[in-house]
Amino acid sequence: MSNNNNFGTGGLIDPSQLNQITQAIAGLNANQLTWMSGYMAGMAALQDPTLAAPQQISAVAAAEPVGNLTIIYGSQTGNAKGIAVAYQAKASAAGIPAKVVSMADYKPRQIKNETHIAIVVSTHGEGEAPDDAVELHEFLGSKKAPKLPNLKYAVLGLGDTSYEFFCQTAKDFDTRLATLGATAVVERVDCDVDYDSAAAKWQDDILAKIKDDLTAKTTQVPVAAAANTASVASIYSKKNPFSGTLLASQKITGRDSVKDIRHIEISLEDSGIQYQAGDALGVYFLNDADMVTRVIAAYGLDADASVTIGEHTLSLGHALTEKCELTLSYPTFVKALADTTNDPGLVALLADKTALREYLVPRQIVDIAIDYPVAITAQQLVDACRPLTARLYSIASSQSEVEDEVHLTVALVEYDAHGFTHQGGASGFLSTRLEEGAAVKVYVERNDNFRLPADPNTPVIMVGPGTGIAPFRAFMQERDAQDAQGNNWLFFGNPNFTQDFLYQTEWQGYVKSGLLSKVSLAFSRDQAEKVYVQHRLVEQGAEVYKWLEQGAHFYVCGDANHMAKDVEQALLDIYQTHGKQTADEAKKSLLALRKAKRYQKDVY
Questions:
Q1: What is the torsional sign of CA 322, 327, 328, 332?
Q2: Are 61 and 215 in contact (CB under 8 A)?
Q3: What is the dihedral of CA 249, 252, 254, 258, to 10 degrees?
Q4: Distance (Å, rounded) from C-alpha 100 to C-alpha 7?
């Protein structure tokens, strides 16, 4: 070992200076030490401005902060995390000490020690909290939750107005915190799918309200703002997608299948984009030209009429093709038309929320246009529409295997109504309308809540019926590349063995090589009584329990409303039957799995 007394300082500080620094910071808490690090960075930047690049220099108070902002996020995907991390950078730039933590890693009882919290949370299924939010959500609604009279908070919900329980989890957090005596510094904001501007305003509004609480009122000195996102942000993102190339769109279900499922391959060549098994791909699409024509005709408008979206002026046809959401229906469209025209039919439909929801579920915007051909202008039509948003698909490949490609497993949504064929937006675009070699705008959506174990020797159980098989194809490609020694068990289901066994030859190859240890199949229509993956789990319950006791990670991908719930109930049954646990003990076991990140879901 070196005898250099300056060990650890790079020779820049002599022992006497180091002792002085150590004495000066003795007794400071974690928040104060964090603040001091920024203060010192700012002082360095004053003496040598080059030290600040590429960080932005901002002014903060040179005194001890009187509180701390904790930004807590809960989400199945990366949207809530992205907002939370960006908010931390904005708060730090404003001189407010802030930390970001996932609800999965947050100890619920810690909330009694907080002074200020900002919650960013999505909602899943029928108004349910996302997996990483469950424990905190339940704790705040339980008798164990402490009174919080000294806590100031703000809540941002992420959701989709197309769903009945829009932002329900955010509403729950807001209500429960208020019930416990906490004070909202701003009103809760419930965001639709196009959330950027609303989230940014929410952030600014909070900072304006809490700045006096969390910054000291003394001389201001320049400090380098935190650059949390710069080091991890890709050049390509939701706002700046990469123009990839469609390499293949191949049907992988049989001729007589009730499903049309496609294997999609897209080139990411020269993009530098990196993704991990478990991530999702955001796909932007163009609306079907025939559908756009029908919408315009229903309202008696001209496709060449000029409309304005933001700062851009374009034709109505162009706007409806590239900028407006037409394949999903949503209450805000009906409301906008009713407010504009005062049409009796629309007003009556809007007044009955249950009837409105039932009406919208099976319809697209073109169907509403045909049912209610009210007199509106081109601009009013565009203003009534939601902005078109990308569709997220679980990535079905590992870059260890496919390098600069990305693969998807896409179920084509297609049905007849009003005498013509309707298609899903992205699924129709990728499956039937986009030619091979054509461009498609894409970006990677990280999903750190759906990852293979860090240890390749850890066994995994994968439950993925239908297109839920996609991420597990990626998992197996990655485990193969790792030469992983951990056992792998796949549960897969679909209607028919001969028509719907997706990637059958690949799975057979993995079985032959020994990479895939077990396969349990559930083809629901191959026998009189329907059999699904949850039934196979229960049948294999003893061995499933054994695997879990040996440390296996358990993954579920697919339908959130039915399949994922049935699989979870099967797991609870397994713990009760084979673990000899009570119902409450089984729930605690499942919660422990979730907290250990051994029970992960990618559901939709």
A1: positive
A2: yes
A3: -80
A4: 32
| Pure H helices in 94-222 | 134-140, 168-179, 196-214
Give backbone dihedrals phi and psi of 387, rounded to 5 degrees, phi first.
-60, 140
Domains of the chain: 28-224 (3.40.50.360), 242-285+390-445 (2.40.30.10), 289-384 (1.20.990.10), 460-603 (3.40.50.80)
Residue type, 519: V
Q: Is 18 exposed, middle or buried (0-12, 13-18, 19+ CB in 10 A)?
A: middle
pLDDT digits (tens, 9 = 90+) for 480-517: 999 999 999 999 999 999 999 999 999 999 999 999 99
Tokens of 350: 């809007």
Measured distance CA(549)–CA(559) in Å, rounded: 27
DSSP assignment letter at 422: E
Position 64 pLDDT exceeds 90: no
Bridging pattern class, strands 553-558 and 599-603: parallel
Structure tokens at 385: 């529409």
Query: Beta 280-283 vs 116-122: how paired, if at all?
Result: unpaired
Q: Which residue has the tokens 């509004």?
A: 205
Alpha-helical runs (H) found in 269-311: 289-298
